[in-house]
């Protein structure tokens, strides 16, 4: 089966399922997969946006493309989509969980509804879909599961406690899942990007305070990240951390957490009394 896993590097005629495929990094991943000849399946809630993405994928690849509207936080909806994919498209060769959301608010002021939504979308939905598809891939003896986490799961920043916790959870989930499926020829790749130039921050950072502290050059273009991800599918890559120097900062934080806390608070000009905590 090793040769079959290596074939995923080329993506031609491989079935690729992408959650969060209607916008942002999910859309960029769908288009890049289509350019490489994949049969793309996109899943999200907005059917109109999904249809537009699938239509462009068909044009780019010359192969069928599929769009299924579903709420990824509903296990029943996911089960229904996976059943449709099995019967209408075929076995999934590559799964990418890119659906996610965030809200940058101090933990003491975070609403329960927002906390629950982030946990359900960023973590529980990802884990359930990964679990379902992993079973199929283990049976067929090959496949790749790519989960989009974040460098926020490694480097804490003020006003992102819940979001960072969900992304840290994804990283650890993948670390265990990787061990469990490795002997079945299934790759598990965790993607930890820094800030991405997508509409994400318009919803997550409504005040603009968080984003204001980030220089424009630090933002990653989604097309660039999509190419980087696909270039590592079918290989032994465990994680993609971009930009690389920020990943080194994550390592440094683990070694010198006290110094890291001081530096991060300085960078974000964060004071507890200033935030009325």
Automatic annotation (TrEMBL):
Pfam families: adh_short (PF00106). Its EC number is 1.-.-.-. GO terms for molecular function: oxidoreductase activity. The keyword Methyltransferase does not apply. The keyword Oxidoreductase applies. It comes from the Bacteria. It is an enzyme of class 1 (oxidoreductase). Keywords: Oxidoreductase. InterPro entries: NAD(P)-bd_dom_sf, SDR_fam. Signal peptide: none annotated. Belongs to the short-chain dehydrogenases/reductases (SDR) family. This is SDR family oxidoreductase. It comes from Limosilactobacillus pontis.
């Amino acid at each position: 089966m090793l040769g079959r896993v290596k074939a995923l590097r080329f993506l031609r005629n491989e079935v690729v399922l992408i959650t969060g495929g209607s916008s942002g990094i999910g859309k960029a991943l769908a288009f890049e997969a289509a350019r490489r000849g994949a049969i793309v399946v996109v899943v999200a809630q907005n059917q109109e946006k999904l249809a537009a993405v699938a239509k462009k994928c068909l044009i780019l690849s010359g192969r069928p493309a599929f769009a299924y509207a579903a709420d990824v936080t509903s296990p029943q909806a996911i089960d229904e989509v996976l059943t449709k994919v099995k019967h209408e498209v075929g076995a999934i060769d590559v799964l990418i969980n890119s659906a996610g959301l965030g809200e940058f608010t101090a933990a003491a002021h975070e609403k329960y509804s927002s906390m629950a939504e982030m946990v359900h979308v960023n973590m529980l939905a990802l884990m359930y879909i990964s679990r379902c598809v992993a079973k199929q891939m283990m049976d067929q003896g090959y496949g790749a599961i790519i989960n989009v986490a974040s460098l926020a799961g490694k480097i804490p920043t003020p006003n992102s406690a819940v979001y960072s916790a969900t992304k840290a959870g994804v990283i650890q989930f993948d670390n265990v899942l990787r061990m469990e499926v490795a002997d079945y020829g299934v790759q598990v790749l965790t993607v930890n990007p820094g800030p991405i130039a997508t509409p994400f921050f318009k919803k997550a950072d409504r005040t603009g305070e968080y984003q204001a502290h980030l220089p424009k050059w630090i933002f990653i273009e989604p097309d660039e990240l999509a190419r980087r991800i696909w270039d590592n599918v079918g290989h032994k890559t465990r994680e993609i951390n971009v930009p690389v120097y920020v990943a080194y900062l994550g390592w440094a934080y683990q070694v010198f957490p006290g110094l890291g806390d001081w530096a991060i608070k300085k960078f974000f000009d964060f004071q507890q009394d200033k935030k009325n905590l």
